[in-house]
Design goal:
Largest sheet: 7 strands, mixed
Structural class: alpha/beta
Strand order of the largest sheet: 3-2-1-4-7-5-8
Distance between the termini: 16 Å
Mean pLDDT: 80
Order of helices and strands: HHEHEHEHEHEEHEHHEEHH
Helix content: 40-55%
Length: 345
């Protein structure tokens, strides 16, 4: 005789069915949210030309002096074109200076900047190259940023931290400055990376899912997330003398410049403006080790460094990372699940 308990087990819904229902609900929910985010981005894209024009007009001749800090490592085929565009076609209404900062003088980026200045492709009076040396106690990029920011002249009221491969639309710096200066409570004004798969692979798509969750909030313009690729701050907020400020935490074994800015803003209850400036970033991971390195930095390495506040922020950081990891895993779960077992005859 057949065991009735075995029959009930076989006829009962399996855990895979419940998981399939869960991920189907997640896909539906995120699909609606991404459609809403796309509608907001489309509206922002239509309004962006007018926003850029209004920001340039509002700043006018009163735009404060700005220093652009570009931490650089090496050079690639597009470096010269990118740097010419950044230094000569930024469109900012006020005085601008540029600080390229490298780890060592032997870096090919150092010699390339000098060559471009010698050929007249880059100006010489407001473009400088700094050598920061090897990092001790912080990440190399953050060490380069600290070295450059501490050497910015007092005449520069604003500091734009910009990745050297980011191309700015004409008027984008004016919009960031207008967003920051129009709100005294704003700590920073930041663009955001729009990650897209550079090739049609599971690895590239898996890396993009993590950022897609953040884009839902950023699309509305109030995500309150700083992004190190393009982030504008007041120089006064970057001074080491500011109690509990960004610079103090950068120097305290800091690793991620933008995570620290975001955490300090939340601790101080200050706003980070996210105007509709998206920078396309093509993700092209070719091996599982590259994907592992990406998630390792996002979820594990960042947690080994102190958070800006000693009490609740570590719990908040754990929660945010676990939520992001769980959501990203849930979106990729269907492909890893076996098909539901067939019903017993």
């Amino acid at each position: 005789a057949k065991d009735p308990r075995r029959r009930r087990t076989m006829e009962s819904p399996s855990s895979a069915v419940y998981l399939n229902v869960a991920h189907a609900a997640a896909y539906a929910a995120f699909g609606l949210l991404w459609l809403h985010a796309a509608r907001l981005r489309r509206r922002s894209a239509r309004a962006l030309p007018a926003m850029l024009s209004d920001a340039s007009r509002a700043l006018g001749d009163s735009a404060p002096p700005l220093c652009v800090v570009l931490p650089v490592k090496g050079a690639h085929a597009q470096s010269a074109a990118n740097w010419r565009a950044q230094c000569c076609s930024h469109g900012y209404a006020g005085p601008v200076s540029f600080l390229f900062v490298v780890q060592e003088e032997e870096d090919e980026a150092h010699s390339l900047v000098k060559q471009l200045q010698a050929s007249g492709s880059l100006p010489t009076e407001n473009v400088s190259v700094l050598v920061a040396g090897l990092a001790v106690g912080t990440s190399q990029k953050l060490h380069n940023l600290i070295h450059a920011v501490e050497r910015i002249g007092e005449q520069s009221e604003l500091v734009l931290m910009l990745d050297d491969d980011m191309l700015l639309a004409p008027g984008a710096v004016n919009l960031l400055a207008h967003e920051l200066l129009s709100d005294p409570n704003a700590l920073a004004a930041s663009g955001f990376s729009c990650d897209a798969p550079g090739r049609w692979t599971v690895l590239a798509h898996a890396a993009c899912v993590y950022r897609l969750i953040l884009e839902i909030s950023v699309a509305g313009g109030e995500g309150s997330h700083a992004w190190g690729g393009c982030c504008l701050m007041r120089r006064a907020d970057l001074l080491e003398s500011v109690p509990g400020g960004v610079m103090a935490h950068w120097k305290n074994r800091g690793y991620s410049d933008d995570w620290i800015i975001t955490a300090v803003a939340r601790k101080q209850r200050r706003r980070i403006a996210n105007p509709p400036l998206l920078f396309l970033n093509l993700v092209d991971f070719r091996s599982p080790s590259q994907l592992y390195n990406f998630f390792h930095r996002q979820f594990f390495v960042l947690d080994t460094y102190p958070q800006p506040s000693p009490d609740e922020p570590r719990i908040q950081a754990h929660r945010l990372r676990l939520e992001s990891y769980a959501l990203a895993s849930l979106m990729g779960l269907p492909r890893a699940l076996p098909p539901p077992p067939a019903a017993a005859a």
